[in-house]
Amino acid sequence: MRLMPLTAAALLGLVATTAHADITGQIDATMTLQAGCIINGVDTTDGTSAGTLGTLDFGTETTVFDQADAEVQNAGSAITIRCSERVAPTIAFDGGLNPGTAPNGGATRALALQGGAEPRFIGYELYSDAGRSTVIANGDPLTLPADGSAQTVNVYGRAFGGTALLPGTYTDVIGVVITL
For 74, which DSSP code? Predict the structure, then answer.
């Protein structure tokens, strides 16, 4: 038997040829941003509801109390708002469910007795300062800076006692509008 020497060309013919070419492509990335705010830690876009922003709890008093103070609290702190840079948000509070029905203290808002046979009200006000000297009028907006930083909005309340108050739970719901 005779062996034939293999040449380099013959060896190349025995090995399967593979083409090596790069295949290229691309991925398109995109993101659209709109103005919005983070309110009490929740990312909120323009036109959506921020839900409950806090509670103004005057505590428990007797029916003959003179006045009671409270502060709006949300998980132990005030309302916090951080909006898009160059957006100067405003925050406004309405008169609640019972505006102008307070029989005492000259208040513009009122807590209403729940489940009572006859309507009873406790007048109260909202204030922008802890000394309770600057009333937040119904619908008057408070303007916040447009620098994109987190802002703390402290809201204080004072309820005014009066005559003919009955034992029970008195409540109100204050509407809040944040405008971008």
Answer: B
Q: What is the pLDDT of residue 76?
A: 75
In contact, 77 and 133? CB cutoff 8 Å: no
Residues 72-105 as b/e (b if ≥16 CB within 10 A, e otherwise) read beeeeebbbbbbbeebebebbbebbebbebbbbb
Could you tell me if 93 and 174 are in contact, meaning their C-beta atoms sit under 8 angstroms apart?
Answer: yes
pLDDT tens digit sequence for 113-125 = 999 788 899 999 9
> How many Cβ atoms from other residues are within 10 Å of residue 171's Cβ?
13
Among 165, 163, 71, CA closest to 125: 71
- SS3 at position 76: coil
Question: Counting beta carbons within 10 angstroms of the beta carbon of residue 149, is it exposed (0 to 12), middle (13 to 18) or buried (19 or more)?
Answer: exposed
Closest CA to 164 of 63, 65, 67: 63
Those residues of the chain that have pLDDT short of 50 are none
